[in-house]
Amino acid sequence: MGRSPCCDKNTLKKGPWTPEEDAKLTHHIQMHGPGNWRTLPKIAGLERCGKSCRLRWTNYLRPDIKRGRFSFEEEETIIQLHSVLGNKWSAIAARLPGRTDNEIKNYWNTHIRKRLLRMGIDPVTHAPRLDLLDLSSLLVNSPQLNNLSNLICLQTIMNPEALRVALTLISPQNENQLLNYQNQHQHQFQNQAPSVIQPNQSSFDNIITQQIPSNNPTTSSFNNQSQSLQVDLSSSSPSENFGFDSVLSSTPLSSPAPPNTTSSAVGLTINGTTEDERESFCSNLLRFEIPEGFDYFDDFM
DNA sequence: AATTACGTCAACCGCTACTAT
DNA sequence: GATAGTAGCGGTTGACGTAAT
């Protein structure tokens, strides 16, 4: 035999909490402290499940909860911690004083996640989503891409399999060329099985910059402003920011804002930080510049 | 002004690990 | 040791507000 049930679910109230219920719960916890959620509703005179009371207290009524918009530093911390911890919202919340796991989770899903996607960054892996690039339309619209050597530049930063498929769309001859090239440079590709670069991997500490030459028709064909498609995982010392130990020990809120976030971007200003600035900083956390007017990523979102 | 689409977030649901009986 | 309850977590939902048409 185990314990008796904590509550009668048939008589439980659900839905939004009323001010009266909030007052009862708050008063009870002020008098007796949090905990023992099983018996709390009955003692406090609430027709709620203890689980619901705990959630209401921890997510809304707790006096140390910080309400309002997330600051730039908080957002920075969330992104860094998420890159290390993943969807461990409670672990992330533990390093953000005054913020609840639920709040952080909501903010991630409604703001940060979308921003990363818009920037072409996979919000799960925090890596560029080049592996999802719509290469077929890109290649069809850019005959210059038949230049195999240019594609090899891309090869180093994207899933080889995706590139192989893309080449197949052009011609079998090119695919053979690529396979020959790959055979000759086997040692360069054999460790590239993952389709994306993992932020946590040891190579993250090294400078990983793949830059396509400015005279490269691959980029010039779809880019008039930015002369390079760059993946720079080390600028702004992300090895320090993303290193597991440093992230866990430096939080909460100890990471300084990167220098370039003081740019004079115009637009909506929230907490002293514009959306543009926030996006700019995100690109520094994992520097991945998407050329202006390059909208292929939108097709995947 | 009315309607529709979209964004936000509080609250619920279901699951797991832990604990009491 | 087996069983059942509790606490806590992450995913999802739905009500509400706002923007767009």
TrEMBL record:
Biased composition (Low complexity): 213-239, 246-266
Stretches for region Disordered: 210-267
Listed transmembrane segments: none
SUPFAM superfamilies: Homeodomain-like
Segments forming domain HTH myb-type: 9-61, 62-116
SMART domains xrefs: SANT
The UniProt record lists the keyword Ubl conjugation: no
Superkingdom in the source lineage: Eukaryota
Subcellular localization(s) per the UniProt record: Nucleus
GO CC annotations, alphabetized: nucleus
Keywords, in A-Z order: DNA-binding, Nucleus, Repeat, Transcription, Transcription regulation
Myb-like domain span: 9-61, 62-112
GO molecular-function terms, A-Z: DNA binding
Name of the protein in its database record: Uncharacterized protein
Source species taxonomy: Eukaryota, Viridiplantae, Streptophyta, Embryophyta, Tracheophyta
